[in-house]
């Protein structure tokens, strides 16, 4: 099995000026406490996380409206679409793969941005790629069985192209009235060594936070 999510901690890169993850030790054995325990402070969009429709659609389903079976993907597909700082994935980038992912339930896109996540977190959080709104037309085409999209950058919105990213979120999460929507798995670990043979099945295990729009998640690939 392979882990397609990152550890969540104070070192986790954040999108633009989002508040960081903070761990505060409340009880310490070394300082006389009977146990170690911590207070954890984070927004629900830090690190590898899953967005559901309520994130951009007020009447959309919330995280706890789904069951764990909704986050099991038996036909994942990995594709490479290299992108540089602030570049957007467009419908023209996805069109050559349309027939392949029409029968897939999870599409994983590797742009190469994940390669500098740990070495240059400021670049990762402030200059990463994103999606253009027209990409939604291909992803949500009527013959597609796609239910989720994962990618190796912190948000579907590029920090350098926020307006287009907001529109893409609205399109794929159902806010614009489309008949279908996708889950978005942001900040996924899609390393250079990952191959299609590693992806027989993918399990996404969110922290089921009551009635929220997103949550940190653990993503596991079974070969």
SSE diagram, text form:
Elements: E1 2-3, E2 22-27, E3 37-41, E4 49-51, E5 72-73, E6 76-80, E7 88-89, H1 91-94, H2 98-102, E8 106-110, H3 121-126, E9 130-131, H4 135-139, E10 148-151, H5 162-172, E11 183-186, E12 201-206, E13 214-222
Parallel strand pairs: 6-8, 7-9, 8-10, 10-11
Antiparallel strand pairs: 1-13, 2-3, 4-11, 4-13, 5-12, 12-13
**Separation, N- and C-terminal Cα atoms:** 6 Å
Number of strands: 13
Number of helices: 5
At CATH level 3, the topology is Glucose Oxidase, domain 1
Biggest β-sheet, characterized? 9 strands, mixed
* Full CATH superfamily name: Putative cyclase
Query: What gyration radius follows from the Cα positions, in whole Å?
Result: 17 Å
**CATH first level: which class?**
Alpha Beta
Domain count: the total is: 1
β-strand amount: 15-25%
- H/E element sequence: EEEEEEEHHEHEHEHEEE
> Spans of 5+ residues with little confidence (pLDDT < 50)?
none
State the CATH architecture.
3-Layer(bba) Sandwich
Assembly type of the chains comes to single chain
What labels would you give this structure?
5 helices, 25% strand, 9-stranded mixed beta sheet, 13 strands, single chain
Kindly summarize this structure in a few lines.
This protein is an alpha/beta fold and 223 residues long. The protein is 14% helix and 25% strand.
Walk me through the structure.
The protein is an alpha/beta fold and 223 residues long. Helices cover 14% and strands 25% of the residues. It has one domain: Putative cyclase (Glucose Oxidase, domain 1), CATH 3.50.30.50. Strands 1, 4, 5, 6, 8, 10, 11, 12 and 13 form a nine-stranded mixed sheet that branches. A two-stranded antiparallel ribbon has the order 2-3. Strands 7-9 form a two-stranded parallel ribbon. α5 links the parallel β10 (148-151) and β11. The longest helix has 11 residues, at 162-172.
């Amino acid at each position: 099995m392979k882990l397609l999510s990152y550890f969540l901690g104070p070192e986790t890169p954040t999108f633009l000026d989002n508040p960081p993850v903070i761990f505060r030790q409340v009880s310490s054995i070394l300082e006389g406490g009977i146990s170690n325990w911590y207070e954890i402070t984070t927004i629900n969009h830090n690190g590898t996380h899953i967005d559901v429709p309520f994130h951009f659609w007020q009447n959309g389903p919330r995280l706890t409206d789904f069951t764990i079976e909704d986050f099991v993907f038996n036909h994942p597909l990995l594709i490479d679409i290299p992108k540089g700082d602030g570049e957007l994935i467009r419908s023209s980038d996805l069109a050559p793969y349309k027939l392949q992912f029409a029968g897939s339930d999870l599409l994983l896109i590797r742009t190469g941005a994940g390669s500098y996540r740990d070495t240059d977190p400021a670049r990762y959080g402030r200059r990463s790629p994103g999606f253009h709104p027209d990409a939604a037309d291909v992803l949500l085409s009527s013959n597609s069985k796609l239910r989720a999209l994962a990618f190796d950058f912190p948000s579907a919105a590029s920090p350098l192209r926020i307006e287009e990213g907001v529109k893409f979120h609205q399109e794929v999460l159902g806010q614009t009235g489309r008949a279908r929507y996708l889950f978005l798995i942001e900040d996924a670990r899609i390393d250079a060594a990952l191959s299609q043979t590693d992806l027989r099945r993918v399990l996404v295990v969110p922290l089921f936070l009551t009635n929220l729009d997103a949550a940190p998640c653990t993503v596991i690939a079974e070969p």
